[in-house]
Amino acid sequence: MASESLNAKQARNRLTKGKRQQHQQIKNRSSVSDGDGEDSFIFEANEAWKDFHGSLLQFYENGDLCDVTLKVRLPLLPVDFLMGVVAKEQIVKQNLKCRDLLDEARNYHLHLSSRAVPDFEYSIRTTPRKHTAGVLFCVGGRGGSGDPFRSIECYSINKNSWFFGPEMNSRRRHVGVISVEGKVYAVGGHDGNEHLGSMEMFDPLTNKWMMKASMNTKRRGIALASLGGPIYAIGGLDDNTCFNDVERYDIESDQWSTVAPMNTPRGGVGSVALVNHVYAVGGNDGVASLSSVERYDPHLDKWIEVKEMGQRRAGNGVSELHGCLYVVGGFDDNSPLSSVERYDPRSNKWDYVAALTTPRGGVGIATVMGKIFAVGGHNGNAYLNTVEAFDPVLNRWELVGSVSHCRAGAGVAVCACLTSQIRDVGHGSSNVVDCM
């Protein structure tokens, strides 16, 4: 190797130094700009790529280009940046192995858009790194004492441990929880005395919960989903009625509005946004648990029925993984379930996958690091504090720890923030509660 050639270690050092400089540039830019979200991310990707480009040239000259490109998770880049910048890079186009990696990234985005991609497989490059995967929040719920919680517990992926974060303003069980744009929203529920229509938002930058506009209808057992920005509050119930009401919250204006109601009332419903639709899965219509599923098209402001599940269930958890909808646990009327079903919108087909290690009604679920986490619930005899995770590659659930409070009816969501941003408040307002 020629003496003037940069070796791999020197190139990595150069890249690290460049990243520090690029981080400061981004920090300076963010202080004078209102840009955020996807535009900010694409800016960061562009700046990082410019800095990385010099090192790529050296790796290319040394014959190590493919080795270093394997370390870059191209599928996780914004598709506009992927096709507009990376795909046009000459040194990538000239390397067959790099072109294979680019094809993998293209197929990943096609697969997520519900287009059929034969023989597509997920890999480590389609999974976020631990420090960018976000923080898993478990919010509210109730335990054996019967009193709803205002406490929240947060999961550190790097440390594989849970800690208490700042408490909500209100106690809330059977609360709807979602994270949008790096903030966590808790909506509705029951505080032990009455049903709630109020909403509060947790901002990791201030470590505080802030009250926001209330829904029009007070209810518990609602589901939340976000599609393109707005938050949808779906179904729910009070002591007299199961609702088919759907409300939409605009974050910028802090206002709720009514959209088309579902075809069926659904209390204890599960929901998730998938591609261009919001799905409402199962629930209870006031008579029995439901196996039916419907989805909302915001452009038509209309709900339509899709293929029903194999099992009736309410109080189930719903999440998205690899372009498919997963429904986990719940109750068939009063019987807690361990069964798990997967819906693929490309084939309009439901399949059973591996069952939970224990039945979980009122379970909270969310997707983290390419796995589905199931938190708490009730197994028919006791409230649970155990947490288990589903690996779709192995088709297996395994126990991965526990939260401090045994709880069911909690809201679970993944927030795009760092664990270090959230103030650890120790053991919360009380010690581990009775699970019975």
TrEMBL record:
Gene Ontology biological process terms, A to Z: response to endoplasmic reticulum stress
Record keywords: Kelch repeat
InterPro entries according to UniProt: Kelch-typ_b-propeller (IPR015915), Kelch_1 (IPR006652), NRP-like (IPR044832)
Biased segments, Polar residues type: 1-10, 23-33
Comp. bias intervals (Basic residues): 11-22
PANTHER family: INFLUENZA VIRUS NS1A-BINDING PROTEIN, PTHR46034
Protein name: Kelch-like protein 8 isoform X2
Biological classification of the source: Eukaryota, Metazoa, Chordata, Craniata, Vertebrata
